[in-house]
Amino acid sequence: MEHILDNPIYHALTSGHGHIAKGIDEVKYYTEDVAAFAGLKDNSQENLATLYQVSGPDSLFVFFSKTPVPISSPWKLLTQINMVQLVFNGTELPLNNPDGITNLDESHVAEMIELVELTKPGPFLAKTIELGNYTGFFSDNELVAMAGHRFYPSPYREISAVCTHPDHLGKGYAFRLLQEQISRIMRRSEIPFLHVRNDNEAAVKLYQKLGFTIRTDMIAYVIKKEAA
Question: How confident is the model over 30-64, as pLDDT tens digits?
């Protein structure tokens, strides 16, 4: 039986994020300026063809799959990212020191996009902040670390956009932001989870230290529409 996290994007768009979903019953995608993710009820060639038909011209999407999916015309495969999915298994709120952590809002979006472009944790668009609970650290009025929420396949909530400016690594910013994110999710009686590249061993070890365990492998496909 399929677990809800085997297809986290589709289940987010049919539950917690249904209000910002576009598409039809078996093919969903986020509003374009919020996130470039699509979720298919099953990753079949038929549903990929339907996604092509219902989405706008020049659309670019990221979709996840536990197993390899062949990508063929009229879609163009831009890249494939091999990841692991981790789920938080702790039962107690992590100890945290919120001092210095700032809640980020629309006024910080330009800085957030700049930090994401520098560190490449994943796509971040003009209204991605609407997914909620973005927090960060500032140094000399510059945003140097941040984390927030992304997919919401209820009752699971994904932590995402975890990144630190290269000049500020080793200061514990990511660890403290993750503790804060876990606490916020658990206080809502939700379950934290996240994704990370499978070759990012340092990040995997950090997440495991915080109480996450690897649940499964996951593949992210970045695809773009070509002229039919």
Answer: 998 899 999 999 999 999 999 999 999 989 999 99
CATH 3.40.630.30 is the classification of domain 86-216: yes
Partnered with residue 14 across adjacent β-strands are none
**Each residue's pLDDT tens digit, 78-99:** 999 999 999 999 877 776 677 8
Which amino acid is it at 7?
A: N
83/48 Cα distance (integer angstroms): 21
Per-residue pLDDT at 32: 87
Pick the CATH number of 4-82+219-225 from 1.10.600.10, 3.40.50.300, 3.30.590.10, 3.40.630.30: 3.40.630.30
Q: What is the pLDDT of residues 171-206, one digit of tens each?
A: 999 999 999 999 999 999 999 999 999 999 999 999
Non-local (6+) Cβ contacts of 19 within 8 A are: none
Among 228, 226, 182, 215, smallest CA distance to 64 is for 215
Q: Name the segment(s) of the chain with CATH classification 3.40.630.30.
A: 4-82+219-225, 86-216
Assess contact for 153 and 159: CB atoms under 8 A: no
Would you call the peptide bond into 94 cis, given omega within 30 degrees of 0 as the criterion?
Answer: no
Determine contact, residues 112/129, Cβ cutoff 8 Å. yes
